[in-house]
Amino acid sequence: MAGRKEIVVIGAGFGGLSAAIRLLLQGHRVTLLEKRDQPGGRGYQYQVNGFKFDGGPTVITAPYMFDDLFAQAGRKREDYFQLLPLDPYYRIFHEDGRHFDYRRDPADILEQVRQWSPGDVAGYERFSKAVRGVFDRFYPMTDQSFQRLPDMLRIMPDMLRMGLFLGMYQYASLFIKDEFLRRIFSFHPLLIGGSPMDTPAIFALISQVEKEWGVHYAVGGTGAIVHALATLFTELGGQLCLSTEVKQIVIKDKRATGVKLGDGTFLPADEVVCNGEIAFAYQHLIAPEHQHPLIRARLNTMGYSSSLMVIYFGTKKRYAHEGKLSHHNIIVADQYQRLLREIFHGRDLPRDLALYLHMPTITDPSIAPPGTESFYVLGLVPNLDARINWAEASQPYRDRIMQFLEDHYLPDLQANIIAEHRIDPLHFRDTLNSHKGAAFAFRPSLMQSAWFRPHNRSDQFANLYFVGAGTHPGAGVPAVFSSGKIVADMIGRG
User: 457 and 411 share a domain?
Assistant: First the structure.
């Protein structure tokens, strides 16, 4: 490392926290700036009437990433927060009310495949072997920089040979005949803002990550992880500034010299790491006269992910004992391919619903008042490229989702709600600074992955770096956390 540097990190989401802690461990002085009153970014935790609601990510995989980071700091992760393994990982509902439990034990999954579609047992076994091959070949690269074109060219022959240019759904269909099972074994792109029809099959490695290390829940919610990381950062000597909004990344002679805050204060820096969305940074934080017009144009023309409506609610009635729901539940309509087209390419609200229903009190009653139940339901919707007037549509769409849940999964739901909060695409745009209200930045398509994704180090400013969902390796907690490692490694190399 070439000397101790003054580093400013913009945004205390998982990417910003990951980078900031690692940079402290390298011996740098690090200031972490967060515009909201709590760290977390999309992992912000709301508190309403005694309920704790995780704002965004709830599926925690690859726990070794947290263990390794705390170990590097000479700490034990278990002393900061606890992780509980979940099984099943997900309960996925068929439109007729039956469900498939996506479990840890491969034998359990195989038995369910046999019960659902006996003719698909052999195909599923081949599919599992193929996905394992994808993981073995490509997972080691998820915490490596794809800054140069040769980095991409090295993996292209194997992608072609393994058929990974196909969409996830099409790839699963090579092995599996049953329509519902095809959905089950290709749904993971929905967790990172992509359509299973368009997201390349290299992203099948996400499901293998779950098989390798499990799906976990943090006691106290994902907010407990955020709090632990922020605590570690400050214990190591980092300066965390909340309610502190950055208005400008100051550029001089093609280098970032620091940042200007909302109150006009200038903070000098040798290196700047931005955990804010890249498109927002180029539109609002970097003066146009310093930008190459092609970069701005490319960011405007890239494909953006879906958005979300998320309704957080607590009930005075307990539903866990009824046994219908699990911790993570996925509910999609019968007209699956039409639904995906309407979410990712439509101009209006989808005719059907694509829902993820989170029921954390089935695992951790401590996040809600005694005798109550906590939920959030996430509905996939188009981003703000669609012609939906959310100021008018938000309440009716909320009502539609809640009535659906009451009719099919949670009897007497609306009469039992005692706490509620919701966010929609306008929140992603106005509070989280997400271009077009896209909840996951860019879609994970073939031409928007790895080297084709905006790079971790700016192509224009040598000391400006990006972490988060909009850069390599992409969306999802493990990928965003890896982006922090990639950037810290790049800065550490000098």
Answer: no
